[in-house]
Amino acid sequence: MRASGRAADEMRPIEMIPGFSKHAEGSCLVKFGDTHVLVTATFEDRGPPWLRDSGKGWITAEYGMLPRATHDRTGREAARGKQTGRTQEIQRLIGRSLRAIADLSALGERQIRVDCDVLQADGGTRTASISGAYVALHQCAHWMYNEGWLERKPLSDSVAAVSCGLVDGQPALDLDYVEDSGASTDANFVLTGQGGIVEIQSTAEEDPFTEEEFLRLLRLARIGCDTIRQAQDTAIRSYAG
Amino acid sequence: MRASGRAADEMRPIEMIPGFSKHAEGSCLVKFGDTHVLVTATFEDRGPPWLRDSGKGWITAEYGMLPRATHDRTGREAARGKQTGRTQEIQRLIGRSLRAIADLSALGERQIRVDCDVLQADGGTRTASISGAYVALHQCAHWMYNEGWLERKPLSDSVAAVSCGLVDGQPALDLDYVEDSGASTDANFVLTGQGGIVEIQSTAEEDPFTEEEFLRLLRLARIGCDTIRQAQDTAIRSYAG
Amino acid sequence: MRASGRAADEMRPIEMIPGFSKHAEGSCLVKFGDTHVLVTATFEDRGPPWLRDSGKGWITAEYGMLPRATHDRTGREAARGKQTGRTQEIQRLIGRSLRAIADLSALGERQIRVDCDVLQADGGTRTASISGAYVALHQCAHWMYNEGWLERKPLSDSVAAVSCGLVDGQPALDLDYVEDSGASTDANFVLTGQGGIVEIQSTAEEDPFTEEEFLRLLRLARIGCDTIRQAQDTAIRSYAG
Amino acid sequence: MRASGRAADEMRPIEMIPGFSKHAEGSCLVKFGDTHVLVTATFEDRGPPWLRDSGKGWITAEYGMLPRATHDRTGREAARGKQTGRTQEIQRLIGRSLRAIADLSALGERQIRVDCDVLQADGGTRTASISGAYVALHQCAHWMYNEGWLERKPLSDSVAAVSCGLVDGQPALDLDYVEDSGASTDANFVLTGQGGIVEIQSTAEEDPFTEEEFLRLLRLARIGCDTIRQAQDTAIRSYAG
Amino acid sequence: MRASGRAADEMRPIEMIPGFSKHAEGSCLVKFGDTHVLVTATFEDRGPPWLRDSGKGWITAEYGMLPRATHDRTGREAARGKQTGRTQEIQRLIGRSLRAIADLSALGERQIRVDCDVLQADGGTRTASISGAYVALHQCAHWMYNEGWLERKPLSDSVAAVSCGLVDGQPALDLDYVEDSGASTDANFVLTGQGGIVEIQSTAEEDPFTEEEFLRLLRLARIGCDTIRQAQDTAIRSYAG
Amino acid sequence: MRASGRAADEMRPIEMIPGFSKHAEGSCLVKFGDTHVLVTATFEDRGPPWLRDSGKGWITAEYGMLPRATHDRTGREAARGKQTGRTQEIQRLIGRSLRAIADLSALGERQIRVDCDVLQADGGTRTASISGAYVALHQCAHWMYNEGWLERKPLSDSVAAVSCGLVDGQPALDLDYVEDSGASTDANFVLTGQGGIVEIQSTAEEDPFTEEEFLRLLRLARIGCDTIRQAQDTAIRSYAG
């Protein structure tokens, strides 16, 4: 039994509110327990410079955290004049994860910019971001298709992400902040709805981990991503019928 | 009659949700119609360097806008590596407005950092920020007093802000984005609950304005700030009894 | 009687030297007592990118202060790598004030860049800047017209600015540094030669101010701007006949 | 058979020259084929601020690439004024990998700064960096111990890293630049000499990968890291007997 | 005969106005023809960190140019967020030149900051800066001695600088902007009042120059620096008797 | 006799390895004793913007130092976000020196970027950089000519650089770090193979120097540059026959 009362393979309550933003072509407020991320997807009718005349589009992501999303206040990146390495690492991960399930040729030379802004943080902000970003991206693609920008739908699969870790030597799913801080190994998995692996990032915080331990974390991740996918499906059905 | 159907002296619906944030000592989600700002107030047990040994504290503010809070996406300030002049102007205004109703000696050598982050923008983000910031600041001061950090309460009055303008030659209260874009004069007023004036910023966007026009805007601002003050009072009573 | 011996409604001695700069199309060294600002206006035969194909031009301003313009040395902004919020606020104000009296269509797709550099500061640098900038701008427009760049004159009115404040509870005109530091309310007014109001910025430094106090400051500003306008007229006649 | 003529599980020729730098307490020029990285380890007799009074030390890493280390010239980060997200991601990875095999308490409140500078790049610069950094770190720790800064040796294990990937659908070890560019999945593994896993980063560049494919890459990584460890041992024996 | 009508060994008219600034401990407005530089010297009662406990002081310089000091407007360094290489090169040169004639021990652990700001440029801004900076520095040292900060006078010699060059193959003294732009060799000399050489910077803009040509430029520099020294002496006598 | 055992007019051992880099069109690892600099020359088939339609090309240089090239570690410029004034001064010097012996019209509208990166520093890094850069530049020009990019060879002369100084009152050639730190005068000379002078930078670190002393340093520089030119010739013959 974990401190939170959850079972080892139990996700925190998931909530996904698509269309949360008045202005964006796609958006989703995603909650994994007390971790709340507002994701928007913005359509742009031109691609990045390096894809000019390629016929292909692009999906990119940015990530930010409100200063008091965290337990102690974190200095505002805009005020310090640069993004931390952590921020850049996360936004690169989100972008890669979304592109992995997209057919960039189907977009034509257009770009979708996904913004993930953490309103409140309690562990797992990057995995909640990816999971919510899929919904915002889907809504944006849905809008593009309905508005006649696309000839075919650009998403061939869904994508979800979850963190797992070894806490007090035990594998646990969807770590909250307290668990994450105390975990000896921390792993983030990005999986598609069809079961493919998009990204694995597994890090020993103290002692190295074994292959067996790693595989147990992967098992948990599959369970968690199934749960997330169901929440994603429900969110998508609410506007896409 | 305005495009929105509002009367000239009619505010948009106001909503204030104190304690919106799990972590912050004070917080408030404030809505002026479709303008939504999340304000947090963070307590720090040390003042800024320039007040060392003065016995006085400080209240400072930062302001930001999520990239897709606006109709078109605005580049992320953290990514561009600096805050715009507009952002700096607004956060300086918010800080001054809050300090105007505070007894900085009552804080001792401590600091309260107020963060105003616009989740969705539809005109009047700076005035909504100030109005919500008062609630977050009050809640933070309330917490400090209850926790024994303060010997006396540091806020001697309340503060609210509203924008007014000349739209199609007619004075109007609490401009939304469309009205603001078309206004020939735009004025922001910061008033205290007891009727004092803290700040006036009135700008001719095209033709200069007259003293009479200005005074009519000030009349509207008094009406608007009364309405805001009632919403603030309700919000405060919800946690302070 | 004020510490300086001036009456409440008395400006400091004003001096305006147009054509101070050898290179600029328009320039003016303006002195309000010990506050000295060198203003240049630079003609550019292309407008800013966002006005392309609009047929309209632009007037923009930058502001700076020599490091030892002030009583204590202020760090050089170029060395620190960014402009302060105060600098940005001031240069935005100067630009708005000048555009308010200009017919931007008469410029065609061209730009005038106004640079205000404070050589010596003793309070009121932003109001001296605006007042001198009008002369430099006028001289630049005069040059453009004479050189055949313009079909009609782009300035329809003149503009001047002055600071007022409550010092020891008494309204006073054109505050010097010592008065400004001790004022409980500080207000900057930008007025046109025909009496229109372009901008009001009025701030309570400590206690809020009343509407009556504010109106007394506005009265003083009208007196001050009349005096400035006469100095501007004299300066302009010296080269424009 | 791969384009380079190597077998699937064959590393490029490895060369490690410890003590390459005249000034540094530890250093190693490491070559994985045409990828050449100069690593130095610098001893500092004080730890980072956040470990003050903890009794513990720190190991941190920075990473850079000479502009023409790459096939096409890459702009110099110092000239552009900031490090890319890729650079920050890599230097965070190197630091974590080294700390995973170190006893930070044994360092006392001291810091070792590891600099990895790529002189020539042909794929796998981050894994060559980690592998060479272990030698430079070891030499620095050896020096510290001999000089009497340490009471006990701070490294409890060795660490090595290698990249693997799916090239034309086939698993391959230690990808060079051409292979890396064409790989559908790219994985970096950081393993200890005793077989523990410190970090896994596995990314689908196009299609998702399967668990089985991933495990085959892990097998190759174990083979590669064994080879690297032997080169490390040889290098260390050259100065440590 | 030069385009300006000057003889080969003739300086432009020199003007030096000490005490030009109201606030600074030392100041000088220096004019070499149409090149005008405002120099201030600021006293600080603490040295730079790297001289702590050395008993020695420091003299440092900064250099800037108003945007429209030049024929075409130059972008403001503060707005671009960094100083150019040229600016940094010049301010390092000014600082070295002043330190070369100062007894830093006589200053005690104090610093003098010299700011050279070019109000109008017509060639030779760095040499005018150094020459005027000597007067401002002298006035500041004079003030420090009179105020009792110093036990002995810190300046043992005077320093002046001038540019020379090969224009149309002929050596010429004190180049103006037009001459400087067309010179095939450009040399700056910093000489002391007693005839010692502090700095030589001689650059071939196109073809290399010969030793003989160089020596002829040095002869001219000696003549020019004599003239400058007389202007410096006159300026100094005006306040130091 | 110097501390190093060298005679006053004796260079340190010089080594030049052309073609050191696998990717660059020209490259040279140059060693002046323990000072090691890796120079690459990169061909770009377009010139800088300011030479568009001029028919001329450009040669530019950048300079950097690995953090632990120095005895104590120097902070990485990329991490600090800007290049120091020293770095900018050096890279401007290198660029000027190379352009002085090149016929920029012969390049056409193309650019050669020279990167000088100091792997290990022991005094004289800028003069070693220039001397090695000549070889890398030559090799790049050789490549361009052979590949058919050029109609005629663009280098009309060779260029070399060396530092001299007064150490303990005695002139000495090619100062190492210890000598350089203790020299009372430090001079860098850039000379062409035909004996012309491209650049002189001579600085009094403490007391001013005399013309006679200066001329003795120039004599030494001629001796040193002869030696360097022989090493350059040998290096060039190794690939150019």
The fraction of residues assigned to DSSP E strands of chain A is 25-35%
Placed side by side, the strands forming the largest sheet of chain A appear as 1-2-3-5-4
From the 3D structure, determine the CATH topology of chain A.
Ribosomal Protein S5, domain 2
Query: Structural class of the secondary elements of chain A?
Result: alpha+beta
- The backbone outline of chain A, from C-alpha atoms, is globular
* CATH homologous superfamily heading of chain A: GHMP Kinase, N-terminal domain
Total number of domains of chain A: 1
Q: Got a strand count of chain A?
A: 9
Mean pLDDT across all amino acids of chain A: 96
SSE string of chain A: EEEEHHEHEEHEEH
Using the CA coordinates, give the radius of gyration of chain A: 18 Å
**Uncertain regions of chain A: pLDDT < 50 for 5+ in a row?**
none
Helix content of chain A: 25-40%
Alpha plus pi helix count of chain A: 5
| Pair with the biggest interface | A-B, 33 and 33 residues
Largest sheet of chain A: 5 strands, mixed
Identify the quaternary structure here.
Answer: homohexamer
CATH level-1 class of chain A: Alpha Beta
Distance between the termini of chain A: 39 Å
Second rung of CATH, namely the architecture of chain A = 2-Layer Sandwich
